[in-house]
Amino acid sequence: MFDVIVAGGGPTGLMLASELRLHGVHALVLEKESEPTEFVRALGLHVRSIEVMDQRGLLGRFLAHGQQYPVGGFFAGIDKPSPDRLDTAHPYVLGIPQTITDRLLAERATELGAEIRRGCELVGLSQDDHGVTVELADGTQLRSRYLVGCDGGRSTVRKLLGVGFPGEPTRVETLLGEMEVTAPPEKLAAVVAEVRKTHKRFGIAPLGEGVYRVVVPAEGMAEDRTVPPTIEEFRQQLRVFAGTDFGVHSPRWLSRFGDATRQAERYRVDRVLLAGDAAHIHPPVGGRGLNLGIQDAFNLGWKLAAEINGWAPEGLLDSYHTERHPVAADVLENTRAQMQLLSPEPGPQAVRRLVSELMDFENVNRYLIERITAIGVSYDFGAGHELLGRRMRDIGLKRGHLYELLHDGRGLLLDRTGRLSVTGWADRIDHVVDGSDELDVPAVLLRPDGHVAWAGEDQADLLSQLPRWFGAAAS
Ligand SMILES: Cc1cc2nc3c(=O)[nH]c(=O)nc-3n(C[C@H](O)[C@H](O)[C@H](O)COP(=O)(O)OP(=O)(O)OC[C@H]3O[C@@H](n4cnc5c(N)ncnc54)[C@H](O)[C@@H]3O)c2cc1C
After folding, report:
1. N or C: which end of the chain has fewer CB within 10 A?
2. How far is CA 155 from CA 46, 103, 124, 275, in A?
3. Which of 5, 14, 32 most suits a substitution to test ligand 1, by most atoms within 8 Å of the C-beta?
4. pLDDT band per the 50, 70, 90 thresholds, residue 73
5. Can you give the pLDDT at residue 115?
6. Cα–Cα distance between 463 and 149 in angstroms, integer?
7. How confident is the model over 416-453, as pLDDT tens digits?
8. What's the pLDDT at 117?
9. Over the stretch 105-154, which tens digit does the pLDDT of each residue have?
10. Which atom of ligand 1 is nearest to the CA of 255?
């Protein structure tokens, strides 16, 4: 009997497994592929995911493999400078191939004691009052208290649950691959720049050592998108859009992706939950999907662990859906808007020029970047201090940095007053008294995911909020 079985060893499942292990939860990750993929989908981490890595002491590993870029220019690829004074200690995009992100997250999960079983495909599930029975393709049956489907956009778990996945089907398809070219780099860059003036879904970028990442609209729609395209399809479409195929040859890998936009109606059915692409899919414009999945896992991990460890207050696990469903719905909406702005049609192009002009207003640019980077996310915890429900940025303390205090995934009372107390919850919450000049409230209570659960200075008020997130005091 496992505490939690995680179906899918992509970034969402691996992040979740690590979060569960921080709380001693016995977690098993089932991954159907026997080897990691070499196909690179996501190219980077946005600010909130960078903060998440920092909160868990993992950022150094990611910085060692990534390159920092300005955050400007991510909304529909409209080229604008980064807004000044973003509310974060990490105002950059970290360019890092998803294959490396996946590897780093797998290493971390394993270090923390999660078991990752490759070549194990979940094909069946049933649940009762006490747990979930999972069936694998080879007939093996496994049992756990909870199951989380992190098994991607075509999620078997979601389908077996019968959870609706409403939205729009794929209407346009794009070819993506890594390959070599014979065209000289200067000529290639000039042609690409010219084509991109009209066709925003077209691009060729150097990856080093003569290899290029090629993105070009497909001719139509493949009957089965899991079947990779041929290099000849790339040549043909490059000629259609650029008038030349740049002499592409020697592909490393070739793939295609669609623009379907869908969201699961429910993220939880009793003992089975959904996270990441299993819960929401959208086209990759803006680079949000992997980030959203990591942040789903960050929201869910401590809540599920609290349930397993027996201190979760009523409704805590359901707050995963209540908090994360609207966030993904907003991402889908934002992505739909961006896709319109990528269209070469005159109407959307005119709207794109207008949006571009509006983005010259600092506040508009900032608003859009806060959405893309997810630092603007605010959960609805009810009325109260303006920080309530928002994640807190890293700040300097007299004794170091705030995020250093969050590595273990526990709650935190950061207290300038020295008069407050969380006695009774000391097994779940750290209490740190620090006279930081950068904390502009007397005290804040942070959940394990860094979101502000309470701000103020009154002990009775604090006591009224502690059980909502951290359950009953220990006797
Ligand atoms: C071309 C492209 C570019 C992208 N660029 C970006 C970007 O720049 N930034 C960004 O944030 N996102 C980007 N994305 C999106 C990102 O790749 C996904 O959102 C992300 O991989 C989702 O992670 P996940 O763990 O939820 O799902 P996945 O990465 O799909 O992982 C699911 C895992 O589950 C496994 N699995 C499936 N079924 C089963 C089963 N029945 N049993 C066991 N295992 C199973 C799969 O093998 C897979 O390993 C891009 C996507 C595409 C297609």
Report:
1. C
2. 25, 21, 12, 10
3. 32
4. confident
5. 97
6. 35
7. 999 999 999 999 999 999 999 999 999 999 999 999 99
8. 98
9. 999 999 999 999 999 999 999 999 999 999 999 999 999 999 999 999 99
10. 1
d(CA 36, CA 211): 21
**pLDDT band, very low/low/confident/very high, at 475 (cuts 50, 70, 90):** confident
Show the tokens assigned to 120. Answer: 């194990």
Which residue CA neighbors atom 27 of ligand 1 most closely? 152
Q: How far is CA 40 from the centre of its chain?
A: 16
